[in-house]
């Protein structure tokens, strides 16, 4: 066992399987006490099962780590607040919140039913809000600007690049980026950094994506979720205090820093635009840069 997270306390949602389990396992191995949250539902968010969280907690404790299992549905606002407060009561504090839990219900926009839109938004975007709010309330009460509190959210290339077959998922994942930026600006005064990881790893959700929709280079870097453990551990550590409000890409052995969106060209006038003048200016200055393809780099749609 290491000591990167010695004596720190973490909540990891979706922690029973896949990426969440890899992160929870490494956190415990590096000295953190971990609340492993997992509803145990299907990849589409149906059903529940205490088994995944229980099994991982047993593996952690048998290896000498500290962990407790939790089965809260993170789309439930009140229940999720109780879950965060349980971690604080059980372990005496909260230092790290990692939002991994997610579901997929893929359809093209013209075939997407309202219930499938609502379910994905509820688990991903509202789920992040549901965990961050009580954690932020706790840290605000501490009023320690020198603390090393961490929020680590999970976005996706599906949102960052606009996966055609995942309008609900893409919308939620880009919403999470905006939420990350907002929390980074709002919570730094309480010793909190907020960053997001855009992961690439073999998981049960990725396994539901038809093989023909994946580029060949994407298949080549689909390493196991354990490859995401190190960067998630670094972001959770005290050493990462310098990094706030950024998106980190992690796929296989590669770690990337995404840019923050900013204007790349502009045109201006001193009065209300004349339509012909505006059209000429926009076409002259924007057409070239705008030709860059808006394509998710791992997907063929």
From TrEMBL:
InterPro entries: KR_dom, NAD(P)-bd_dom_sf, Peroxisomal_Beta-Oxidation, SDR_fam. GO terms for molecular function: oxidoreductase activity. Signal peptide: none annotated. Belongs to the short-chain dehydrogenases/reductases (SDR) family. Residues 8-200 form the Ketoreductase domain. It comes from Streptomyces aquilus. Keywords: Oxidoreductase. The keyword Oxidoreductase applies. PANTHER family: DEHYDROGENASES, SHORT CHAIN (PTHR45024), SCP2 DOMAIN-CONTAINING PROTEIN (PTHR45024:SF2). Coiled coil: none annotated. This is SDR family NAD(P)-dependent oxidoreductase. The lineage of its organism: Bacteria, Bacillati, Actinomycetota, Actinomycetes, Kitasatosporales.
């Amino acid at each position: 066992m290491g000591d990167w997270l010695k004596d720190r306390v973490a909540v990891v949602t979706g922690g029973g399987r896949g990426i969440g389990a890899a992160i929870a396992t490494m956190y415990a191995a590096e000295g953190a006490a971990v609340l492993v949250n997992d509803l145990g539902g299907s990849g589409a968010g149906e059903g529940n099962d205490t088994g995944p969280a229980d099994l991982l907690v047993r593996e952690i404790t048998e290896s000498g780590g500290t962990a407790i299992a939790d089965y809260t549905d993170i789309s439930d606002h009140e229940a999720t607040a109780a879950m965060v407060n349980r971690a604080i009561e059980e372990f005496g504090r909260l230092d790290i919140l990692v939002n991994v839990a997610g579901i997929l219900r893929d359809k093209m926009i013209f075939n997407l039913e309202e219930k499938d839109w609502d379910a994905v938004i509820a688990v991903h975007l509202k789920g992040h809000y549901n965990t961050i709010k009580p954690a932020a309330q706790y840290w605000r009460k501490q009023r320690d600007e020198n603390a090393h509190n961490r929020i680590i959210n999970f976005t996706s290339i599906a949102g960052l690049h606009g996966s055609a077959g995942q309008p609900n998922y893409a919308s939620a994942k880009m919403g999470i980026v905006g939420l990350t930026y907002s929390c980074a600006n709002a919570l730094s005064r309480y010793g909190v950094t907020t960053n997001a990881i855009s992961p690439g790893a073999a998981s049960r959700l990725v396994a539901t994506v038809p093989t023909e929709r994946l580029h060949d280079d994407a298949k080549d870097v689909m390493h196991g979720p354990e490859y995401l453990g190190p960067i998630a551990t670094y972001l959770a550590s005290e050493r990462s205090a310098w990094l706030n409000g950024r998106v980190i890409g992690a796929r296989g052995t590669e770690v990337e820093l995404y840019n923050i969106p900013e204007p790349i060209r502009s045109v201006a006038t001193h009065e209300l635009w004349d339509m012909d003048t505006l059209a000429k200016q926009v076409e002259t200055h924007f057409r070239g840069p705008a030709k860059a393809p808006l394509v998710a780099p791992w997907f063929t749609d």
